[in-house]
Amino acid sequence: MLRFIRPLRAHTRLASSLLIILALIVAVTVGLAAYNLATASPDTVTTQTLYGAGRPANPYTDSVLYVLNPSNGAVLHTIGPMGAIITGLAVDPTSGIMYGVTGDEIAPYCTLVTVNKNTGAITPVGPETQGCPMADIAFDSNGDLFGFSGSSPRTVYAINKHTGATTSLPDGSTTVSGNEGNGIAIKPGTNRVFVAPDNADGKLYTMTYHSQILSAVQLHGGPNACGSIGIESISALEFNSAGTLYGSVFDENCSYSSGRPSWLVIIDRFSGSIRVLGPSAKTLDAIAFDPPSH
């Protein structure tokens, strides 16, 4: 019997060793998966609803509210006319209410509005008191609203979401150069403000709430439809919950009569590289994600 016990013990030790190795492999695999999830590229498409305001007829007609595909920019659903030219959209993360700002071309001029996400209809909140018109707006994680002026000086303003009043911030004399771009976005969970004041070959600035410029990167790789590359306006910026910076771009060199070709893009905030996701609603001048809880 002793001759058979030793091989049996040897086989038992081998099996135990194999089980330990298998357990280690599983642990390492799970650990790597968790690490990859935690450090995944922010270039990530989420399941959040993406809204856009565009002008399908020509740039001087009322905007239409759409639901867009965040993967390729396509219009998924036409919600309805908005009754004004909307230059910026943002959803309050604390309430789920969508806000917009109007342009200075047709009435209502330079006004903060709320937007019905089911119909597109707007309700005026109140007039902007400085920086008219606001070219784009963005909420921070606390539900405070900020805007980027479309007129000189091109800087960041605080907006009272209850009255529409706009207030220049401390150090508001700090401005950025550029006339064609109109985007502002605030990275979730931070006090970092990103503005694109010029064309798709201009610069993306990182700023504080007080308009202090922290850095700037050169943008490159934008789309082109009707003219020279660089004519395309960065018309809006927006972060999704994963920290991916989206933008809308339309070509300033295209015909007014049929609406300007527009694209949904992702912008690498570190390198300035623009990745075109696809064509979107005509003259897309504003985009906004619903917060994950809404």
What would you note in describing this structure?
The structure is a single chain. This protein is mainly β and 294 residues long. It contains one helix and 20 strands. The protein has one helix spanning 2-38; strands spanning 50-54, 64-68, 75-81, 86-91, 98-102, 111-115, 122-127, 134-139, 145-149, 156-159, 166-168, 183-186, 193-196, 203-207, 213-218, 232-239, 245-251, 262-267, 274-279, 286-289. The strands form five sheets. Strands 3-2-1-20 form a four-stranded antiparallel β-sheet, with no helix packed on it. A hairpin with an 8-residue loop joins strand 5 and strand 6 (111-115). It is globular, with a radius of gyration of 25 Å.
* Silhouette: globular
Order of helices and strands: HEEEEEEEEEEEEEEEEEEEE
Strand content: 35-45%
Structural class: mainly beta
**Helix count from the secondary structure assignment:** 1
What distance lies between the first and last C-alpha atoms, to the nearest angstrom? 72 Å
Alpha-carbon Rg, integer: 25 Å
Average pLDDT score: 81
Poorly predicted parts: 1-8, 24-43
Number of strands: 20
Q: Which percent bin holds the helix content?
A: 10-25%
Quaternary structure classification: single chain
Mind describing the biggest β-sheet? Answer: 4 strands, antiparallel
- The strands making up the biggest β-sheet line up spatially as 3-2-1-20
